[in-house]
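Quick check before the chapter quiz. The format below is the same one you will see on the exam, so make sure you can read both the input and the output lines.
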Amino acid sequence: MKKLPIIFAGLFACITAFAQEQGKVEKPISKKELKRQRINEMVRQEEEGVIAYKKHLAFGLKLTSDGYGAFIEVARAQSVRKSLLFQLEISERKHPKEYKQQSDQFVFLEAPLIYSKQNFFYPVKLGVQQQLVLGNKGNKNGVSITGNLGGGLSLGLLRPYMVEVEKNGQRTFVSYNAVDSAQFLGLNSIIYGGPNFGTGWNKLTVTPGFYAKPSVRFDYGRYNELLSAIEVGMTAEFYTKKVPQMVFSEPEQFFFSVYVGLVFGRRK
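Here is the expected output.
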């Protein structure tokens, strides 16, 4: 009988402890912690040779040393370190001697004018790049540095630069050619301004060529579905014939430029 109080006390303690354990509410895992766990799992799988994301679709904007451009890119992963990038890019290349004239230089100037500019130059590139992850492929902060190298076909679209002049008593647009060269340069005519966006497209010509493009990309979302990166690189282009851009400058076949670009898209 003397042991009954001890037994009841023990049972009471066990029941109390069980009730307290049941009453505990598990603390929810934060989104930040879930993301960290997911990234750690991706890193572990990549170390075992499992590809985290097999493809991506991306868009980019770039500022070059002689113009600007935009591109679309589709990628296919070959391994955890290698991918193939298929790219379509269009840009506008400007000549270093381009200079917009002011109205005080041409009394009758009514629209912006680049004097002696002969053609707009739009390179359209279709190519492939091999992408290789550099450094530590298991970088847990999700940032990776990749080296890209490739090239392909470049189509140089030439759109005549047309100026508005007075010709035969009427205002009309003319381009630089054997017939209208004097009017184009304002030697025996009044220049009222440069072209608008719609002029010259019906006289578009194409000059084919090839290009090579090495670059380095800093990907700040390696383990995220959303792709966000900065890319720096250079482009070398060679065309089958010389490309006339300015009347008083020697046409060139080879073009070299450097660029910086923003890349954004989605992985799957």
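If your answer matched, good. The chain has one domain: 53-267.
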